[in-house]
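Here is the promised in-class demo. Please do not try to memorize the tokens; focus on the logic of going from shape to residues.
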């Protein structure tokens, strides 16, 4: 048997004692196979990673502990030879991949940027081996190979008759879930052998799952039987908001569609990295890098932050590589748009913080080391590099705007307000119903004006500023169908709406300056 691929994370730090591996999201609306809905993440009442590991449709959880863990993900062309020693815990489970790419993340979520390419969507078998490390945490080896769906099996446990029955019942629940999908039927001694416990432990677990209603035995435990699962019961709510209010004008008018506007000012990036920009109304394309996560226009070209690397697409079409450690969420440009500043935070056995300064004119760079991060204990200050102004949140409803020349202006506005790029105004967002509220700083006492958005629009996701008082945002498929466009332009000061042409993708953030 041959090893086809490998990925190693030497400093994985699990949350809540659970190793989490998931499929990368690559678009669409992934659905499990018919009869496998119980394998969706969160569909069943399970605890952590069970006693060793459990998995389903696009997810796998392992029973971890505190400290940093060393995790190896491997792809094989068939079942690897058994490795029962020196591993203290070994289990196998099927894994249904909807993207063909898996990586490590956390219970509270997180985007996958690195991981293991499986070779395509489909059913895989994964053998999970773990043991305590000599320094801290655990050593993990997760071996994948393509295989038809089958029920999980345990080969090694630190304890055969588990004292922590609640964790063991998670093993039983997932065994029932896979049995339900595959049609597997059992006899009690065989099931106990696959779970690697005594039959009495299985009987006790059946009593617990029966009380909770999570597993049902169809048949007689003294003979052959099948297993089915039930989703956890949801609590019945008798009060609270059952339906969000509808957006206001003009979206409260049936059949309203905004007039057509110009294409996005700085262009759109497709998932494959193709940049489309418009010149005299005609689209022009350039290749960049796949899986873009953020794109920024600069006077020296278009910056593209992708999963694998960061590049600068110069006006002549040349691609300048800038490295893979530049995180898009911290990226900012100086007032002239020449220097890119990005902070890198590494949390691990040797944690550090450093700031990268990249000269976009020639690609040169310098780096400065930063002290360990400390959570702010005083007021939060938010600078705007274009104008040089700083917004400080002094209290829940008191903001202070400071800037060059001794400027100081107090504003009695919500603490959730943020300074718009260029400092023409402040804004807040709302999702229920969707809206942007604009506070114009040209007014002596800005009171705010609401710019309603189509139903099921998420103003916090993907909003791009084209000018100091004009934004473009992507639309949910429901809203896009209604206005026959994938993007919406909103003039926050004027209140004008426009349908923006484009086939969808990642909007490039335009570069603009202010006096």
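The designed amino acids, position by position:
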């Amino acid at each position: 048997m041959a090893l086809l691929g490998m990925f190693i994370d030497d400093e994985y730090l699990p949350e809540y004692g659970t190793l989490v591996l998931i499929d990368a999201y690559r678009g669409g609306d992934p659905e499990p196979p018919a009869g496998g809905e119980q394998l969706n993440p969160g569909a069943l009442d399970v605890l952590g990673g069970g006693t060793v590991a459990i998995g389903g449709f696009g997810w796998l959880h392992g029973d971890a502990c505190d400290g940093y863990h060393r995790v190896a993900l491997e792809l094989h062309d068939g079942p690897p030879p058994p490795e029962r020693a020196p591993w203290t815990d070994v289990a196998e489970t099927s894994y249904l991949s909807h993207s063909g790419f898996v990586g490590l993340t956390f219970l509270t979520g997180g985007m996958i940027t690195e991981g293991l390419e499986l070779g395509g969507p489909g059913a895989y078998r994964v053998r999970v081996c773990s043991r305590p490390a000599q320094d801290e945490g655990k050593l993990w080896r997760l071996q994948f190979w393509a295989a038809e769906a089958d029920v999980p099996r345990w080969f090694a446990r630190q304890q055969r008759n588990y004292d922590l029955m609640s964790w063991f019942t998670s093993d039983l629940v997932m065994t029932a879930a896979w049995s339900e999908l595959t049609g597997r039927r059992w006899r009690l001694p065989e099931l106990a052998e696959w779970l690697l416990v005594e039959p009495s432990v299985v009987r006790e677990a059946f009593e617990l799952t029966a009380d909770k209603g999570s597993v049902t035995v169809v048949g007689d435990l003294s003979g052959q039987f099948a297993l089915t699962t039930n989703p956890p019961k949801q609590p019945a709510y008798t009060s609270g908001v059952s339906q969000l209010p509808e957006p206001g004008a003009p979206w409260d008018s049936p059949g309203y569609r905004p007039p057509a506007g110009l294409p996005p000012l700085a262009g759109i990036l497709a998932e494959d990295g193709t940049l489309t920009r418009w010149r005299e109304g005609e689209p022009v394309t350039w290749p960049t890098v796949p899986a873009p996560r953020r794109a920024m226009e600069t006077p020296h070209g278009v910056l593209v932050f992708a999963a694998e690397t960061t590049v600068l697409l110069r006006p002549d079409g040349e691609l300048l590589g800038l490295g893979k450690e530049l995180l898009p969420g911290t990226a900012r440009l100086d007032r002239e748009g020449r220097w890119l500043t990005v902070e890198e935070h590494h949390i691990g056995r040797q944690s550090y913080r450093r700031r990268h300064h990249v000269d976009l004119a020639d690609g040169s760079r310098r780096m400065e080391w930063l002290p360990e991060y400390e959570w702010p204990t005083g007021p939060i200050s938010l600078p705007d590099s274009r104008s040089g102004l700083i917004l400080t949140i002094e209290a829940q409803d008191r903001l202070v705007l400071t800037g060059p020349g001794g400027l100081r202006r107090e504003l009695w506005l919500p603490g959730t307000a943020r300074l718009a790029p260029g400092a023409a105004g402040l804004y807040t967002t709302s999702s229920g119903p969707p809206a942007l509220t604009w506070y114009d700083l040209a007014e002596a006492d800005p009171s705010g004006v609401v710019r309603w958005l189509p139903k099921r629009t998420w103003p916090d996701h993907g909003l791009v500023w084209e000018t100091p008082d004009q934004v473009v945002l992507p639309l949910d498929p429901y809203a896009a169908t209604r206005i026959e466009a994938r993007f919406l332009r909103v003039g926050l000061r004027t209140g004008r709406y426009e349908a923006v042409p484009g086939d969808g993708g990642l909007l490039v953030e335009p570069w603009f300056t202010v006096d």
